[in-house]
Amino acid sequence: MSNSLRYKAHQIIKDKIITFKLKPGDEIREGGIAKELRMGRTPVREALLILEHEKLIECRANLGYVVKKLTRKEAEDYYALREALELFAAPLIVERITPKTIKELESILAASEKYAEKNDIGKVAECNTEFHKLLYKATDSDAFVDLIFQLIDKIRWLLAMAVASRLGPAEALEDHSRIVASIKKRDAEALKEEIRIHLRHAKERYLSIAEVLL
């Protein structure tokens, strides 16, 4: 029972961080979380230790746990690493993606547009995450998926912050639409260029909001 409660607490707190419901610098009070989740403090404390190990939160003297703030260098390093991995994936996606997956990508774009019109940033962020997960899996490469999914929490976190900027949802939707168009043409070089543009836009949006929040 303790392990299942710890897992539940870990997943709920992580989701709040990654979807930007808990923002960088926000305090995480053990007692408050335990009360909210209707469980004892022990599984919550264990969950917080795991999140600290995952570098999503940090413990500060006199404050307890707070959501970690990425430095500009850390954010730029994650974007650079993500770009290298996604450029590697581009030819695999073009070669191996199925018509069914392309249709699923287009469905996600349609859903994202609907949520953007309603200004539901949380749902837009979820669509963005699903879009990228689907692209990664389209490589049909277990080695690549295993590697990039080790970074997926940080990628989700950066995605959520990027779409939180004023023009974030519209710009991301436009970028994603061009990515899908390149895939449908089976043009690996065009896809690489769209990935570079998309990540440049995402990094600019992230840094613009990070300057205000961090």
Brief synopsis:
The protein is mainly alpha-helical and about 210 residues long. Helix content is about 75%, strand content about 5%.
Fold and architecture overview:
With 214 residues, the protein is mainly α. Helix content is 75%, strand content 5%. Strands 1-3-2 form a three-stranded antiparallel sheet. It is elongated and about 55 Å long. It starts with a helix and ends with a helix.
Task: Describe how the helices and strands are arranged.
Layout: H1 2-18, E1 27-28, H2 30-37, H3 41-53, E2 57-60, E3 64-67, H4 72-96, H5 99-117, H6 121-137, H7 142-148, H8 152-163, H9 168-184, H10 188-213
Antiparallel strand pairs: 1-3, 2-3
Could you list some keywords that capture this structure?
elongated, 5% strand, 214 residues, 3-stranded antiparallel β-sheet, mainly alpha, single chain, 10 helices
Average pLDDT figure: 89
Structural class: mainly alpha
**Percent helix:** over 70%
- Identify the strand order in the major beta sheet: 1-3-2
Order of helices and strands: HEHHEEHHHHHHH
Radius of gyration: 18 Å
Low-confidence stretches: none
Q: How is the main sheet built?
A: 3 strands, antiparallel
Number of strands: 3
Assembly category: single chain
Give the CA-based shape.
elongated
Q: Kindly estimate the percentage of residues that lie in beta strands according to DSSP.
A: under 5%
Distance between the termini: 38 Å
Number of DSSP helices? 10
